[in-house]
Amino acid sequence: MLSPDSLSAYLAVASVLFATGVLAITTRRNAIGVLIGLELMLNAAALQFAAYGRFRLEGADIQGQTAAVFVIVVAAAEAAIALALLFAVYRTSKDIDLEQTRELRS
Amino acid sequence: MIEQALFWTCCLATLAGAIGAATVRNLFHAALLLGLCLAGVAGLYLFLEASYLACIQVIVYIGGILVLTLFATLFSSDIMGAVQRTPLWLRLGGLAGAALASLVAGRLAQFAIANAAGIDRQRSAPGSVPDAIDGTRAIGDLLVTSWLVPFLLAAVLLTATLVGAVAIVKRYRRGASGGAPRA
Q1: Does A24 touch chain B (CB under 8 A)?
Q2: Of the residues B54, B62, B102, B107, which has the fewest C-beta atoms closer than 10 A?
Q3: Best mutation target, A11, A25, A29, A105, to test chain B (most B CBs within 10 A)
Q4: Distances in Å between the alpha carbon of B55 and those of B31, B62, B131, B135?
């Protein structure tokens, strides 16, 4: 059932990937840990797009891969902005523990 | 046979990397495990005949985002080997998070596999196996035809990200050097 040529295998991997992302976001206190969780979730989404595009009933279609490209673009933009904000928070409070962070401006 | 072995290696690298990245206490190790996970996903893209996606996964994720994350990890101090004191209620919160995550994983896998099993059954009919497609060229064609508006929006998004990231960091550097930060 779970072989390289079955949709189920990819979807199972993507599900676990997404759930570990949820786990990281809910349990990490450090902002970088939360960012890692976000990346995991976005990866799961991109993997699902590619898998569904490859295993369409009407034959493989490239639209899924194109959608995955946009997911990766959004992930890159999000990582850049998140790390810039993190840098700003670190500058003002010398800590990036999300429990302690209350403001962005000193 | 060797294809199966490679596929399972990719799956295992992805899952082990993801679980490690979500749970390992040392954030530097977590970021490195994220790299393992991203490499595994790149391998899965190759199995999906998405060679272009595999390339940009390696270039953008491993070469860009992961290096940025590692840099940020090293930049913020007391990460390496720092063991945080964790109060009991937070540990209980972690357990609740793990329960929530396994619930999400279970439901997602249930829906996805139930859905996928139907597709797999129907696809296994003879003659319905799709041909390999010339991916990169087709993606390029799609990006300038039916996906043109999202493509331009992505360009605007990336430009705004570039300017915004520089603006955020610059503003706070000026604020830290004594002068009042300008809004």
Answers
A1: yes
A2: B107
A3: A11
A4: 20, 10, 21, 12
Residue A54 is classified by DSSP as: H
**DSSP letters for B23-78:** H-SSHHHHHHHHHHHHHHHHHHHHHTT-HHHHHHIIIIIIIIIHHHHHHHHHHSSS
Contact: B22, A21; criterion CB under 8 Å: yes
Q: What tokens were used for A26?
A: 């809910």
Sign of CA dihedral B165, B171, B175, B180: negative
Structure tokens at B133: 């497609």
Give the count of domains, chain A: 1
pTM of the model: 0.81
Instruction: Tell me which amino acid residue B150 is.
Output: P
The residue-averaged pLDDT of B101-106 equals: 80
pLDDT greater than 90 at residue A70: yes
Q: Is A81 on the interface with B (CB under 8 A)?
A: yes
A66 located within any domain: yes
pLDDT band at A4 (very low <50, low <70, confident <90, very high): confident
CATH number, domain containing residue A53: 1.10.287.3510
B81 pLDDT above the threshold of 60: no
Residue A52 falls within a domain, yes or no? Answer: yes
The complex's ipTM works out to 0.89
